[in-house]
Amino acid sequence: MNSEQIPEPISIPEEILQKWEAKGVSRRDFMKFCTAVTATLALPVSFIPQVAAAMDDQRLPVIWVEYQSCSGDSEAFLRANQPTAAEIILDVISLEYAEVVMAAAGHQAEQAKWAAMEKYKGKYLLIVEGSIPTGAGGAYCTVGGESAVDSAKKLIQNAAATITVGTCASFGGIPAAAPNPTGAVSVRELVPGAAIVNLPGCPVNAENLTATIVHFLTFGKLPAVDALGRPKFAYGKRIHDNCERRAHFDAGQYAEDFGDAAQRQGHCLYKLGCKGPETFHNCPTIRYNEGTSWPIMAGHGCIGCSEPGFWDTMTPFYRRLPQVPGFGIEATADKIGLGLVAATAAAFAAHGIASACRKGDAMESDKLKREE
Amino acid sequence: MSKRIAVDPITRIEGHLRIEAQIEGGKITNAWSSSTAFRGIEAILKGRDPRDAHHFTQRFCGVCTTVHSMASIRAVEDALKIQIPDNARLIRNLIMGIQNVQDHVIHFYHLHALDWVDIVSALSADPAKTSQLAQSISDWPKSSTTYFKAVQGRIQAFVNTGRLGPFQNAYWGHSAYRLPAEANLMAVAHYLEALEWQKEVIKIHAILGSKNPHPQTFLVGGMAIPVDPDSQNALNADKIAYIGKLLKQARLFVEQVYIPDLLAVASFYKDWAAIGGGVGNYLSYGDFPMDNSGSVSSLYFPRGIIMGKDLANLMTVDESKITEYVTNSWYSYAGGDNKGLHPYDGETTPNYNGPKPPYEFLDTNGKYSWVKSPRYNDQPMEVGPLARILVAYVGGNPDVKGVVDFVLGKLGVGAGALFSTLGRTAARGVDALIMARKNEVWLQQLADNMGRGIYETFNKEKWDPATWPKEARGFGFHEAPRGALGHWIRIENQKIANYQAVVPSTWNAGPRDPKGQLGPYESALVGTPIADEQKPLEILRTIHSFDPCLACAVHVLDGQGTEIIRIKAL
């Protein structure tokens, strides 16, 4: 088939496709990948060629370090789909150091890390997994005899940019939960002012990591972030606002117990403790494991794992969000949202819809007031 | 002349592990295992809702994800005397079962294989001969000359860039690598295939548990994932069929790739069946309940102990004989560091008195690790797939007996070969194969329940803390991929009063006890040959054969009721 006969508004230059074919990546897979990444980055399709060209550049040197981690984010990375971990390691980046996968150990591993830092000073991307303990003179976490505090500072200060994967590196996470026995801090707390993008989540969603790396490759800079350092393309919206069960919340249809008929039918999990109303993350749209599922879809409420301090602020996990300041913020945000809905509804002369939307919410608020 | 070396970090494991070893005459004469990171999650658990505990404990580890949720909910259910519905039992078995299979395959190909497989040598392989080799050992369809040529071409293109990334600075060309080039190429191809495979089959965790790592549908009393064939928001026929497809994909890979590769690689390294034996005591808690009775006899893998490699004498497990020592760990006990404490009565006071970082060597005469030293009846015990398989083999599990005898027969070795580095690696494959087959049985049982209109997945009887006694305590056991895992909980006034986990890598990676008895890693390393002390490939072989998981291993317990001040940073 002669592709020239079909004019394509968006096309990836032929020589790029051929280069990837020579590397053993089919053009179909490569185009699929570029399209998926462009979509995850919330970019218009016209950026597909730019994303493809960025992939074609010299592989970006990446150093991946772990401190107080559970390796869940490394594992999440191994589950990446667009592209896969193998494609990333072989074709997209040059992974200079990563404890979970690297062949060398001990001195040879250490040497690879520090040599890469020197060689690519100011040019490499640093990925940090796990919090950094400041207690006991740094002895709560050492690698190669050196404290996490010392090693992280050097690596962060010499990097072009740092991506924190998971809530521990982003916000301190579980080691920093009360009473924070080891004085654990986030990367941002350790080196204030460094170029950092936070990808919280427990664990990080691999697709968001991939998209952030590609964003960096495409534009040579980190993506726009919110006040907590999280990229807007992934953390710009509340779970509650994109939730597949939102209609049930608005309609006042709630699961009362795990396993009851309402829960089986996919009704709202708010009363079972769901923290979706206070959590900003793209779980409902990206989901996990190649879009297979996410907590609310599987019948369990959100635990707010991409929010700072969630182990303290979101627990007990099975207690419904009370009417505390958090709920107030939620209500306010809803009112703003309601204003927009009302305006739209008015434009279409359908006031009934707007009032129906509020009914469930109002009923629930009344009940809470009675109980507390 | 005797020489001291330190290998830090040990890579291709979970967490931060350091090995120091004394080498003399080309052999290790003494060894010390040290974990160099500490988080203190058990201290963080105190004062919290016991129903939340599994979310916290799951974060012990993201590699053995799920396992600490399992042990935690079982501990709480034991304390509160909660029986779970049959569907919850089956869903849990499936989640645990596929975890074992997937984790073992990742371990074999991505964490362990590079100790035996020389990637660089694969570049000089003849793809046609590789194809012949592959077809002679398996029916796996991806075995053509063209296929292996493409894989080789891809690796060559990568090497040609001159930037080897995670494969740089390794031990390629080391004299201890013994596979022919063709076997190396076959293994590299399967390394890449396994990377693809693992992310597919673990979608079962996403279907049943919402995501992986860190599934989120565990509940004290059952599972949150609903079962209802008439709902699109629950486990229905469609999802059962999808799981069935993934389970088949999992089993075929184990049967046609993992096991043949394991046997092929092992046949070149039979001398490792006499290296790395270690303490010779094996503990398995047993797991995978076949009914809801909660009895030990209902477990598919039996519970038991083997002492001193004596396969003629299978002993029962008495939970009260488990203690932990901190003589050589960076903690102190109020009653003195030389006394062992049972998990219910444990204490925590971190007490780092090691060298100030950066340091060259640890002071191994004193405290030298963040891992404690668990002992059973004051004896060090090895746990893991080898212990599980040995106990099941002796205990008369016919499936295990069949597969073990098949593997031993293929390699032409006796059962004594199992007490070794190679035995550990082989037992992991046996475990994966048995679980891969068993999973399909449990899925069928779940489907049968659904067909009979049994939808219950959660027992809500004791969900409300008001129904709990003022004080309760319990423990939960689980055979995680890496072995015997136990969680102990004390509940007072609806809150966690004390929590402790004694996990597989604590058993295996722990330092010496007050009697000077070496831990299993340390013991297994003694006698290991070292060809080049600058390139500690042989240390990696034996340590990796245990599949270390250090984030799991390091924990803290708190026996004194210090009230935690909860910070609400809204």
Question: Could you walk me through the main structural features you see in this protein, from its secondary elements to its overall organization?
Answer:
The complex is a heterodimer of chains A (372) and B (570). Chain A has 372 residues and is α/β, with parallel strands linked by helices. Chain A folds into 2 domains: 58-233, Rossmann fold (3-Layer(aba) Sandwich), CATH 3.40.50; 239-371, Irregular (Cytochrome-c3 Hydrogenase, Chain A, domain 2), CATH 4.10.480. Chain A is 44% helix and 9% strand. Chain A has helices spanning 14-22, 27-40, 48-56, 72-78, 85-92, 106-119, 148-157, 166-171, 187-190, 206-219, 232-235, 239-242, 246-250, 261-264, 283-286, 310-313, 325-347, 351-371; strands at 60-66, 93-98, 125-129, 132-133, 142-143, 146-147, 161-165, 184-185, 196-199. In chain A, the strands form 3 sheets. Chain A has a 5-stranded parallel β-sheet with strand order 2-1-3-7-9, with helices on both faces. A two-stranded antiparallel ribbon of chain A has the order 4-8. In chain A, strands 5-6 form a two-stranded antiparallel sheet. Chain A is globular. The N and C termini of chain A lie far apart (70 Å). Chain B has 570 residues and is an alpha+beta fold. Chain B has a single domain (3-553), classed as Orthogonal Bundle (Cytochrome-c3 Hydrogenase, chain B). Chain B is 39% helix and 13% strand. Chain B has 17 helices and 15 strands. Chain B has helices at residues 41-45, 53-58, 67-80, 86-112, 119-122, 127-137, 145-160, 181-201, 203-209, 237-267, 385-395, 398-411, 421-451, 504-509, 520-525, 537-545, 550-553, and strands at residues 3-7, 17-24, 27-35, 218-219, 222-223, 282-284, 287-289, 299-301, 304-306, 314-315, 322-325, 373-376, 471-480, 483-492, 495-502. The longest helix of chain B has 31 residues, at 237-267. Chain B is globular. Mean pLDDT of chain B is 94; it is low at 556-570. Classes of the chains: A alpha/beta (372), B alpha+beta (570).
